[in-house]
Amino acid sequence: MYSTKAYAAASATSPLAPISIPRRDPGDRDVQIDILFCGICHSDLHSVRNEWSGVMPTTYPIVPGHEILGRVVKVGRAVTSHRPGDLVAVGCLVDSDRTCPQCRGGLENLCANAVFTFNGPDRHLGGVTYGGYSASIVVDEHFVLRVPANLDPAGAAPLLCAGITTWSPMRRFGVGKGQKVGIVGLGGLGHMGVKFAHAFGAHTVVFTTSPAKGEDARRLGADEVVDSRDAAAMQRHAGSLHFVLDTVSADHDLNAYLNLLAHDGTLTLVGAPEKPIPVSAFSLLFGRRRLAGSLIGGIAETQEMLDFCGARHHRRRRGDRDPAGERGLRAVAEVRREVPLLHRHGLAAARLKRGGPCRRVTGRRAAGRRPAPWPGAARPSPPSRAAAAGSPSGRANRRTGSRRAPRP
User: Fold this and answer.
1) For residue 60, is it within any domain?
2) How far is CA 374 from CA 130, 268, 362, in A?
3) Helix 299-317 vs helix 162-172: angle between axes, to the nearest 10 degrees?
4) Per-residue confidence at 188, pLDDT binned at 50, 70, 90?
5) Does residue 44 carry a pLDDT above 70?
6) Sign, Cα dihedral of 176, 327, 158, 338
7) How would residue 313 be classed by pLDDT, with cut points 50, 70 and 90?
C-alpha cells in the first residue's frame, strides 16, 4: 500500500481540501496510473453534496472524479493489455462481479455488484473507493481503456462519462442517417449528444431555454435550434422526431418532448432529476412511443467510442476539410457558471499548481484555444486546425440540464 495526494470533501457542506489517501499496491492484474487529467462531472458535485442520498448515499470523506486520463507507470505480472508508458483512461467503473449475465454480455455498468470509481465499496482496502481528483490510482486491467494516441488527453477525459453516456443510447437505438434526432439541453452531456448525432449522420435539433446558445449548437453540428419555451416552435416539430436524448436533470415537462416523437419513437433519459417527473399515459399510448433510460455504458462499448473518436480525428488530419466534420468531436466547454460554483465549493481546480495531484479539465474551450491546465498556469499554444477537431471536452453548467448539462 502507498499514499497519494488527493482532494476530498469531509461533509456535504465542506469545501474540497488536500488529503493523503491510500492506494493498494498493484496486484497481478492491476495497472498503476499517474493521473494527468480528470474531468469535472456534475455527478461529482451531486455526490459531494449528497444530493442523491436516496439512491447513492455519500460516504465521507469523498474523493470524486471518474473521467480519468493518465500514464501507466506499473503493471502486474499477469497484465497483458497495457504496459508502462501507455496513455490510458478510467471511467465510472473500477470493478464488477464479472460472472452475472450483464457482465458476460459486456454490460458491466448494469451489474448489480458494479463498483464505481468513487464512493463504491473498496474490496481491497475496505471503506470506499477514491476517484480521480488525485495523483495516482490502481485499477484492474479489465477496466483500464486504451486512448488513441492522436486524441488530446485533456479533450478526451470527459468522454469517459459524458461521452459514453450519450454514445450508448444512440448506438442502442440505431441513431443514424435519415433520422431526425432531438437533444434536450446543451451542456456537458448535450454538447456531446449533438456531436455524436451529427457524426452518425442524423438531422440534429437542439431544444434549449437559452437561445443565446444557438451559435454554439450550430457550430457543434446542430441543424436546428429550438427555444423550448416557444409553443409554436415546439408544435412545428410535433410527431416528427425518431429519437430524443433528454440530458436535463432539473424539473421539466417530459410530455412536451414525448409529443415531439414520431410513432415508435424513443425518448431516452440520461439526466437524473432529483424528484419524480409526471408522465401522461396518453403521451406514450398515442404513437406507440417509448420512454427509456440509460446509464453510462459497458467497457467494450466505451472502448469502441474512444476508437471511433480517434478514427474520425485521424481522417480529418489526412485532409477531410468538410466544415461540419472539421468540428469533429471536440466540445465547447459549458462552464461559464460552473467554474464560480466550483470555486465556491472549494473544488481545488483553481488551486492546483504544477506538481499537484492532477490537472482538471475546467476551462472554457473556445475555438482555437485550450484552457490552461489550472488558473494562473501558462496557457498552451493554440492547437492546429486538425487538432481542434479532436474529441469532446468540457463540463457543465451548474443550473444543469443533466448531470452536466444546462436547462433545456
Assistant:
1) no
2) 22, 35, 8
3) 100
4) confident
5) yes
6) negative
7) low
Residue 408 belongs to some domain of the structure: no
Residue where the block lists cell 476508437:
307
pLDDT above 90: percentage of residues in the chain: 70
Grid cell, residue 391, equals 474529441
- C-alpha to C-alpha distance for 268 and 175, rounded to whole angstroms: 12
Residue type, 261: L
Q: Is the pLDDT of residue 323 over 80?
A: no
- Please say whether the beta carbons of 121 and 115 come within 8 A: yes
Q: What's the number of domains the chain is made of?
A: 1
**Strand pairing of 2-9 and 145-146?**
unpaired
User: Distance (Å, rounded) from C-alpha 50 to C-alpha 94?
Assistant: 21
Joined together, the cell numbers standing for residue 398 give 451548474
Its domain, for residue 249, covers 163-293
Answer whether residue 324 is part of any domain: no
In a domain, 16, yes or no: no
Distances (CA, A) of 35 to 69, 125, 135, 201: 6, 20, 5, 35
The predicted structure's pLDDT at residue 100: 98
- Range with the poorest average pLDDT among 47-61, 88-102, 124-138, 310-324: 310-324
Tell me the one-letter amino acid at 347: L
8 Å CB contact between 41 and 66: yes
Please state the three-class secondary structure of 170-221 as a single string: HHHCCCCCCCEEEEECCCHHHHHHHHHHHHCCCEEEEEECCHHHHHHHHHHC
Domain harbouring 216, CATH code: 3.40.50.720
On the question of a cis peptide bond just before residue 61, with omega within 30 degrees of 0, the verdict is yes
Instruction: State the DSSP string of 97-123.
Output: -S-SHHHHTT-GGG-TT-EESSSSB-T
Q: How many CB atoms lie within 10 A of CB 299?
A: 20
Asked whether the beta carbons of 138 and 117 are under 8 A apart, the reply is no
